[in-house]
Amino acid sequence: MAQSPRYKIYDAAGEYQASVKDLTLAGGLMAILGEGATVRDGHRLVIYTEGIDGDSGNSYDDVAAHVLK
């Protein structure tokens, strides 16, 4: 059985919304969820916050580049 995707997406209210394997897809979700949404490695470690670490509306790839730094 496959594992759950590594990256977890939370909205600005801190509510779990999705999990993804691809960080570019995470960027797309950040653009939809808006400022304060987060990408987490697992459910705890915040690795990107929309509006603080960048603006995914400019480029979904920017989220991936920021996380992989």
Descriptive account of the structure:
The structure is a single chain. The model has no long low-confidence stretch (mean pLDDT 92). The protein has helices at residues 23-33, 60-68; strands at residues 7-10, 16-20, 38-41, 45-49. The longest helix is centred in the middle third of the chain and has 11 residues, at 23-33. The protein has one domain (7-60). It has 2 helices and 4 strands; from the N terminus they run ββαββα.
User: Can you list the strand order of the major beta sheet?
Assistant: 2-1-3-4
What is the overall shape? globular
Measured as a percent range, the helix fraction is 25-40%
**Average of pLDDT:** 92
User: Could you say which structural class the secondary elements and strand pairing correspond to?
Assistant: alpha+beta
Content of β-strand: 25-35%
- Catalogue the unreliable spans: none
Descriptive key words:
single chain; alpha+beta; four-stranded antiparallel β-sheet; 26% strand
Summary, kept brief:
This protein has 69 residues and is of the alpha+beta class. Helices cover 29% and strands 26% of the residues. The mean pLDDT is 92.
